[in-house]
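G., before I forget:
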Amino acid sequence: MPSLKDIKKRIGSVKNTQQITKAMKMVAAAKLRRAQEAAVAARPYAEKLHSVVSHLAQREDIDGHALLNQRGTGRALVVLMTADRGLCGGFNANVSKEAERFIRANEQGFDAIDLMIIGRKGRDFLKNRVGDKITKVHENITADATYKTAQLIGQEVVDAYSAEKYDAVYVIYNAFQSAIVQIVTVERMLPIQSKETDEELQDTSIDYIYEPDQGEVLSQLLPKMVEVQIFRALLESNASEQGARMASMDSASRNASEMIGKLTLQYNRARQAAITKELMEIISGAESIK
Amino acid sequence: MADKLKLEMVTPYKRVLSEEVDEITAPGFVGELGLLPGHTPLLTTLKVGELTYKKGNEVFHIVVNWGYLEVEEDTVTVLVDTAETADEIDLARAKAALGRAEDALKTLPHEDKKYMIMEAALQRALIRIQVAGNGR
């Protein structure tokens, strides 16, 4: 049976922890709102760009462009998006495990698979599992991802792809569904998939004007598409991270309250027992004097 | 045929505009473009410049910075990196940027990579100042 003092100490420490988890939950909630707004605000741009590209793909024979061409199955690059910080439930582990699974499943399909990791936690997780495949790690960029950051990463990816260093590029990230639901998503980024829909093919008859010319427009549009995809994935991943952290900190706070309740009960029982014992001693002492 | 154009302008950060307008003038890559309802389908890149649109008798000015413009069935979609309306422009900052760029251009050799960057900065600053002047 722990002493009164011990129990009191434990209650104190659990309370401290609870304060921290509560504060983290609040912070995550505030950040979630901003991250969510940013992710939602970026959607129209990504959608419009996608529709421009797929219009283009429908109308013209654009197989000639490097970013659209299917190449062999040489090297592949996997871009994994994780967080820099932990304490957000299964957020990092889920997406990292998926990356590991993806690599194991496709190892036979490609000559080699390289891994580019965004976020410290993903590196920590995969260092000992597939450490030899990690070629690049970007840290401290997810928290305030700007379009500029996405542009730099996009450029890196497009350059490596155009130089035929890689024949396929995949991105793995947590897609934001709602504050408590994240979906681990694997997308093929390159070669670009032109999601053609047959119903709109009659458009081909319309004369389309390109300025300066079709090749020029395409060669600027396609890298942009990669950048935007990375940007969107970064924002979604960030929003998911905050959502995951909020949920896990919420449940941690609740667990702490539960524990405090149990400990308080124990404390009160121990106190009551001590009082009873003292009373017994006094009474028995008084009896013996008589 | 509709007698209005639907103008949609988006940047990576937000949807800037979604309006019915009468006339658009945009800084196309090979030269200024005037768009009226019933325009042929068109896809062009945009350079740094001033995009104006008319709505009734009112004229609006927006600074756009690199992007695309697509016209299809009287819907004009503008995808740009940044877009600022006249009252969003910080005139003092633009003037400071202009000064900086001019100084840098005087000292830098033409072949330098920075020269191109500063030249673009100069252009942006000039357009901002121009649009800020027009809008007020």
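Residues 103 and 118 of chain B are 10 Å apart (CA to CA). Residues 113-135 of chain B form the longest helix (23 residues).

More on Monday.
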